[in-house]
Design a protein that fits this description.
alpha/beta; 53% helix; four-stranded antiparallel sheet
Amino acid sequence: MNIQAFLSEKISVAMCAAGAPADSEPLVRQSAKVQFGDYQANGVMGAAKKMGIPPRQLAEKILEKLDITDVADKVEIAGPGFINIFLSPQWVAKQAEDALADEHLNVTPVEPQTIVIDYSSPNVAKQMHVGHLRSTIIGDASARTLSFLGHNVVRANHLGDWGTQFGMLIAYLEKKQNENAADMALSDLEEFYREAKKHYDEDEVFAERARNYVVKLQSGDEYCRTMWRKLVDITMQQNQVTYQRLNVTLTEDDIMGESLYNPMLAGIVADLKAKGLAVESEGATVVFLDEYKNKEGEPMGVIVQKKDGGYLYTTTDIACAKYRHETLHADRVLYYIDSRQHQHLMQAWTIVRKAGYIPDSMSLEHHMFGMMLGKDGRPFKTRSGGTIRLTDLLDEAQERARALIAEKNPDMDKDELNNVARVVGIGAVKYADLSKNRTTDYIFDWDLMLSFEGNTAPYMQYAYTRVASIFKRADIDENALTQPIALTQSHERQLALRLVQFDETIMQVSREGTPHVMCAYLYDLAQTFSGFYENCPILSAEDENTRQSRLKLARLTARTLKQGLDTLGIETVDRM
């Protein structure tokens, strides 16, 4: 159950019954301090102002109408008109029992929507690098979260697989095939791309052939399409290995590259002209937007077709939104693209809505993110200043994790050590990113991310193994726990309350695309369990009823930690 939503509804009904304006909405949130109750409701001040009465007077009227006697032990007014709610331990225990008995931890059912998530977006004939990490793992965390809640999630990998560079790449692939060296060259995509560009810049005959291949490719020439397809396939085969290492749910079936929308572009430009939205300007086709002004205060022009007939990213993004409505029937589209692209997307979506390509009910959301920085505060690069390949970063993460785990567990066999190193190393890289607010830049620091202390993946993974080990050590059959949860100690109550707040946490993450909120919740849950574990003996409890109750709380903690980490795409192990 979503306690926050439940209490908000109850207080809203009471506010209306107390005579507050119909549009009055109480803001109910978890209290930061226990002495202020478990939840605190405000919004009374605004409603009281509209009614012309003191806030405390309205709060008193609300309490007279508020019907939560079966939920709360105490409700009181604080300060100028805040309403503090102290939940009943018996009611909290019941919510914990319901969560433990339910496969989905008693998370509130949702009205399923079709949600398209645009993320990762690597380029053909280029290795994925650290710049692709944030889009890939934050987008995947969002996809996992929304899928868990029951939405129809469409993963869209907007592959950079179209454009003038493909003439150059096709010409170079042809050259290497003639030399019987194509496969060897394509094993290192970065080198392949660099050599193709070098030939294009230095060999005019090669460059002319490349330009001709662009025209042929865009007109559907079978030979060029075959060569282009080979470049795409080789790239995505290598990327798929990286996705699997990252425990990311993208597959080859999720590729929706720029080429998918190419057949739509001419029609869109013609339609924008017909609707009077696009006009000719200096040989190009431009949409002038009053919503965006240049330095002179004039409407900003957004080019949708260049004077040479070529199209731009804006045109593709217009087609993309149109396709996601007409073909995918999306209710909501989430774009995980870095913050530098925000204005570009806003302009494209303004044109989309002006043209009537999508309904008002369809939500387009830019879930932007900042950059990954090195300790020097600059974009994270190699010591020589080059771009770090994602596969190299993951190799180093596993090597560092392997050394740490081997030091802690010198007797662990090789296969288990390699698996734990993989889970911990990859998890550390992902969690270090996901635990930061995605809208800000963050500092990449190996020592911090692999620490077993603080809000890190190793700490969280170890917290899970610690809870799970209770059942392994005592060889307990979870189905034999038949006694109810009873919350007689403060640490028991605190843990149970934090456990049943998983629902409102995951709902917030699903609305805002903020995995750091889930990370903060799980970290706090792990710390709350530590306090419970230290103060409330489990296996040596004073009686069987208490023992079973505490074992149930431990079991629910393990399940919640595991499920929460799973929504982040982070694996767990039984021993570390």
